[in-house]
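Sample 1 of the test manifest.
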Amino acid sequence: MTQEPAIALDEKVGDEIAKTTCYMCACRCGIDVHLRDGKVRYIEGNRDHPVNKGVLCGKGSAGIMQHYSPARLRAPMKRVGPRGSGEFEEISWDEALDLATDWLCRVRKTDPKKLAFFTGRDQSQSLTGLWAMKYGTPNFAAHGGFCSVNMAAGGLYTFGGAFWEFGDPDWELTKYFMLFGVAEDHASNPIKIGIGQLKERGAKIVSINPVRTGYNAVADEWVGIRPGTDGLFVGALIHELFANKTIDLDYLVRYTNAPWLVIQDPGAADDGLFARGEDGDPLIFDKPSDDYASAMSVDTTPALTGTRTLADGRTARPVFELMAERFLSNDYSPEAVTAQTGVAADDIRRIAAELAHVAFKEEIVLDQPWTDCAGRRHEKMIGRPVSMHAMRGVSAHSNGFHTCRMIHILQILLGSIDCPGGFRYKPPYPKQAPPWLVPHGAPKDIRPEEPLGGPHLGFPLGPEHLLIEGDAPSRIDKGFSWDAPMSAHGLMHMVINNAATKDPYGIDVLFMYMANMAWNSSMNVPGTIENLTAKDEAGEYVIPKIIYSDAYYSEMVPYADLILPDTTYLERWDCISLLDRPISTAEMAADSIRHPVVEPDRDVRGFQTVLIDLGGRLGLPGFVNDDGSPTYPGGYPDYMVNHERKPGIGPLAGWRGKDGSQTGRGDPNPDQLKRYLENGAFFAHELKPEQAYFKHANKSYLDWAVEMGFRTQALPTIFQLYCEPMQAFRLAAEGHGERQPPETHRERIQTYFDPLPFWYAPFEEAMVDEGAYPLHAITQRPMHMYHSWGSQNAWLRQITSANRLYIHRSLGAKIGAEDDDWVWLRSHQGSVKCQVRLMDGVNPDTVWTWNAIGKRRGAWGLSDDAPETKEGFLLNHLISELLPEGGGGYRYSNSDPITGQAAWFDLRVSIEKADGGSETQPRFEATGRGGLAPSPVKVAYGADFRRSGQ
Amino acid sequence: MTSLPETTEKKLGLVIDLDICVGCQACATSCKEWNTGGYSAPLSDHDPYGADPSGAWLNRIHSYEVGEGQGAKTVHFPRSCLHCETPDCVTVCPTGASYKRAEDGIVLVNPDTCIGCKLCSWACPYGAREYDYDDGVMKKCTLCVDRIYNETIPEVDRVPACVKACPTGARSFGDLGDPNSDVSQHVSERGGYGLFEEFGYKPVNRYLPPRAPAPVETAPMTQQSEQVPAPDGSLAERLFAWADQAFSR
Amino acid sequence: MHPAYSVIVFTTASGAGYGLLFWLSLAHAIGAMPNIPWLSFVALTLALILITVGLISSTLHLGHPERAIGAFSQWRTSWLSREGVAAVATYVPAGLLGLIWLFGVETSLTIPLALLAAIGAIVTVYCTGMIYASLRTIRQWNLDLVWANYLSLAAATGAVLFGVLLALFGEAPTWVAMVALAATAAAAALKIYYWQTIDSDYGQYTTAMATGLGHLGTVRPLDPPHTRPNFVMREMGYTVARKHAEKLRTIVLVCLFGAPAFLMLLFLWSGLAAPLLYVLAAIMATTGVLVERWLFFAEADHVVTLYYGAQRA
């Protein structure tokens, strides 16, 4: 009895190791799933995988409980009670698909725009977008509109890339890293790996964030900025760089539009546009020849300064001068921004001087020859080892687009885009700035049974690319209208509201995937629920039909009429495609697949396969053959292999061609998936050393990018410090051109479509009484649940099953509240009752909480007394999808005026101590459980795996 | 068995870098996932979808705020068994189920002989032992003894699950009894420490304290780059005069 | 520390049982036992019942009581194991005494067996006390006073029970009342001294020491690892409000010490109504010792709570 037990050391972990791709967030890490007796024994990171290199985050490592959650949907369902009741009956797939086909077919035959198809945390937008395009509705987008479109659009318009999946800091070489705003979520493991590397090397990390948790906790310097003022802070850094002449002029001349001449002719129809030569090229002033030259010519010495007189007698000034004047103004002096940002002027000066020191005194020189796109050979790669990263914290403000642009301009002035030690693009980026892709779905292009002329989402260059007729928006979300002209990701957050109020028009079918719109993915949850259940005079739902697909019983499920149950991530096919959001790193182009490693024990199907099936049933072009038979009878895996977007280019880039010998371009290879599986479910193509940096102007890289289909021409990406498309919109607002904004929008367009970035107070802050709502309220997701919902996961929810409102100790003292006391938090939209926790590491004017911990009773397989429903709360209830009524009586969406990004970090609140309490308010009544079996009262997962010898 | 070995051949343990840990919980969940099917399977969970969810976890992450003013920090603090050299948790065990291995110093509980009296958890100052109400035995960090010696696992992966998973590289594993091991070197460079050394249990695991912020020099401000004669004037005028240098493309 | 009822019943019942066994055996050994048929046998039976109930109760909080036999193996290091061994060992002389008294045979072995049983009782209760007194993680327990408390309380409650039995069998010698009074007084003195001792020690350990982060300044908990309490917090994190503890201590003073002492004095003074007074005293002492034992756990602070927000331990 007292012998030490024998520990079997020669037994395998499982019977087999299935290598696939994680799907608990947007990171897409490679995982090794150990299977034993048909069950998942263990999930660990794949050491060979480019994304995670063997590590795995808190979510990924809890995958077993995600997969075996009792909240999983079990079969297709048809609603039988009223919406919200959660009363469903299970139906067969045949019946479900017949019903969906019937609904969708009728709409397509009459008015395709009456289908709104929006996907949430989906990772297959190249398929879903194609499907919507072939269907012919303009109403398609994913969740980027409330996620981070400001970051994406701000970057793509400025330098043809962005942070997150578009590029990374040069983790191996950077010496100074600035992390802006809530940024924990995108690229979770790569950022963690990178931060670990920086800490180990002793590189400095500066975090600019109102809250000192997570990555900010390990930063060398924490700048506890006031929310929404990052633009002022960055503007002041730029001010200092200009004032101290610590900018990379050489870099500006080579790679940016700093020398391009801008017409100075107020009142003229081309004021503020680039002076152009006869060939349409922008002009620069070449100093040696003392004459104008095309900005595209390479053998010039462009002037960065000086007012020039054009041939027509008008004057023009280089972008550099206009930009310098903007930021050298007193508005951006460190002293001027101190009060607003809460950052001391001396700290701003010091940080600017540190940036300058690292960029210019600690430059990195790599002995790596390369050739620029003009064909000139450079012996070395010179790096400015300063890097930055930002995400939602900066993005989700109504001034986010300009702030994102400012951050990129700061990087560019330091010469640190795609150089050693700086920011690095990840293929297929860089694109052109902005990408050569305009939005499709103008009213005239929408015809029954006809596909759209091109993809929905793009980058308008001026009013001519708006999707409007007269002033009327074409899209249900008013994307690419005067409300949000550059809404490159759409405005998913407005769809339900607009559909229910029939503004701009009513729809017939709302089709959503993986988007918890009836809960934490909507602003103003009570309003959204009202909209989902609104009825007309005849007693019919205003949104007549709702189809929803998800793997779990979320809060959205009870509001749908037809449920198409999705699989878990271990039961499905997927491709993480270079056509979409690939897994590339700065050193390699890479894509990957997901494949079923366990068979579903329920009557569920992968959503993409269902969508392809529906495409065939509807006879959508591209989804049926000439004889009417489905093009991809094998579902998604069939599509992944055989679909060609352009000849030779398909969803997967690896092992193309009949024999699998081709990369990027080549015929479909019937063995392609097999090859992926043999390689650990991913494909990676390493860039050559000479392609590693300066990809925006690197001939070898650009040529290869054309070969791969990433670009159409090997032209350089020229960084747009001055964003001319914005001026095009502004000119329209000033009364020029055929398309002009309606009077309600004229001043707004004129003000915010400034071709040079600037800071303005976030809208909600500017519109509500600051005295009445003196505090900022923001959220972040805990790392162990980020970009996924974790409350159906028995392990993750143990870590966080209720959230507190974190407030500064001084605020606690002021309102007399201590840890766990109940408070009322109020905004112009509503009130929430919750419990506080006091801390020091938060901006004193800011309160914050963990997002999406609060759950509704009835959802996620949780009991009605679960802490998530009793103590957990959402700030969403306080956030309005519309701004307060402004001048003219028009209520704009609570979004960035340029991109339509939902401005949920703009929230302003007041706080007061409540007279005790035992549960959060508002607490919604329980929904029905859709017939799911009660969840177990204990879990002893793994008991069966206990070794017999022990 | 509850008599401690006089010495152990190795002192295997973890080194946890508090300067790097971002509190992501990867070590906690990967530990749970490995061990719920491992040596002392399962690690049961009670009321997993209800009002009071809890379970046996062998690794938990606290967070603290430390220090005041500019020097204040948020510190994430993973806590698990420290595999002490002379722990009372082993000697108090009435059955011998709790034992310390002579070959490598790992402190283990034999799940087949533990009677679940919980006394060992009372004796541990670190809260490292968690009783599994369902299984009726005490569970604790095994240093993944069924991983680190498992010949079927690739050698590079023969580390505890938490070390393999940790995305920031804040955890390392090795022989802290060998002064020349990587972990020992790291500990001595960084001033690694054990917890509650006052008890004299000689914990093996080491914590590396948060480092002082990385120093960065500042570029000279405003005076620099005046090689080009500049007129007295506004900031913009001086900047433009400087920028008027010739830069060919 | 969480006051588990099984452990409270175990320590109090077996404590009283061993106390009774001790006095019974001692009385025999020194020849002071009144010669009443069945008295010794009944008293011994009661002692063994209390001891056995206690020991069985102690197994109730085990996760695997069916493996309890293993608990006798580690007597070299474990006080819990030693307690088990001592308890079992004590059954031997006690059981033989029971047989002797059952059959009413007098042998030369009676006195040595009685002495062995008395020693066994002392050793077992001492071991019980040492289970707690040896835990360095709990300052309120890691004191010699703890085993002294256990021994004195076993003696006091056992003496009162001894008196009850004698009284019920119609015998009420003064010396038994005096023994019960003295044992109660000693237990009271030791318990009061214990309380003074733990009250004057605010704990030498802090969260700064627990985390090793004190050199950076004050250490303040921000978030616990999990939202809801875990085993460690439930088991080790139990606390009792100061005011509530004061009330309970008063109850202990009155029920466990004051009332039995008063009743013994009343008996010594009046010599009347011995059965009633003894039974009353036993009821009060039982109530008191249960509360005392509950407090013994509830007032004990474990150092692990320093990781979870306790200021000192």
